[in-house]
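Reviewer 2 asked us to include a model.

Predict the structure of this chain.
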Amino acid sequence: MTEPNTLFSKDGFLFVKNKDKNYSLYFEIENKNIILEKIIDFHLVKLIYDLNPEIYEKVNLKIMNENEATINLLLKHLYEELGLPQRFTYVHIIKEISKDNITFKSNTIKSERPEGMPNEAELMPIKNMIIKCDIVTQHKIKFTCNIIFEDTMIIPSIVEKIVGFVSFKIFSRVKQFIEKVSV
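Predicted model (structure tokens):
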């Protein structure tokens, strides 16, 4: 097994390439004013996207029950100048809770196209994504986000570093937002 390759590291965020088409993002959130595990739910998933309107054009979360949801996201066409297509994701998410962690497992829905997606936008070829929220204390959670792309996804090395930076922006805003909440 090869060693992970660090693509981006800043302010407690680490984005690594584990192997071809397989990436991980690590960070922690701490807030002594709230019990964090109580806010780790599908609404937090939507908050991630709502705090980043310059990256996401459209967000549609459909919660089926407390452990299952679908979400479709249309990314803004950020890299049109590089010749890359506009992308969207459409995933089914399962939330699993255990004593020490909360895990969100996402799989791409390929059987249908969500309403309102532009015809030219392409489905992001994500094989699966797992976000594991390890409960360190009631006020501190360690996040690990693993994403594996389909074999068809071609990711130039320059794009990998951009993805690392964009991921940092996205999750640092969420981290800052949660860490500033007081009850």
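The first helix runs from residue 42 to 50. The two ends are 46 Å apart (CA to CA). We have added this to the supplementary material.
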